[in-house]
Amino acid sequence: MDTLTLHLEPGQDLLLSLSEVAQEKQISGFLLGVVGNLSKASFQCPGRDQPTILDGELEIITLNGTFDADGVHLHLSLSDGACQVWGGHLEKGSLILKGADLLLGILKQGQAARSRTKTRLEIAVLPGCPWCASALRL
To answer: What's the number of domains the chain is made of?
Structure first.
């Protein structure tokens, strides 16, 4: 695995910037580390229909996930001015405040950062059904 550092300037979109680099360089890999802050954060919390949007001086605590030329999948945790911690799935619209430095782990050509699995078959079974019992052994 090779590494690449990426510096983001004030006003840049965190998600879109990483996505653009992956597309331009045709690279895939993992986010290994980050130091920086945001003026605006947009992230999807589990079980909610709309993204949560925070404004202010927001410190990035963690940013984990994968990227490739087809997109990014990142999870963000951050703290606000009251040291309250927030987090979720990173969405477009998360803007850099003063700067952010990212360390990317770049995979070799042909290696995928994300598993591209096909749709799986789901089998429903009924208790005591002999045909269901044989289906489970498949």
So the answer is: 1
Cα–Cα distance measured from residue 103 to residue 3, given in angstroms and rounded to the nearest whole number: 7
Q: Let me know: does 30 contact 104? Beta carbons within 8 Å.
A: yes
Could you tell me if residue 131 is inside a domain?
Answer: no
Q: Which of 61, 104, 105 is nearest to 85 (CA)?
A: 61
| Rounded Cα–Cα distance for residues 134 and 86 (Å) | 47
CA neighbor of 8 nearest in space, from 39, 16, 17, 64: 17
pTM given for the model:
0.78
Q: How far apart are CA 74 and CA 126, in angstroms?
A: 39
pLDDT in tens, 120-131: 556 566 677 666
Domain containing residue 65: 2-112
Tokens of 53: 């949007």
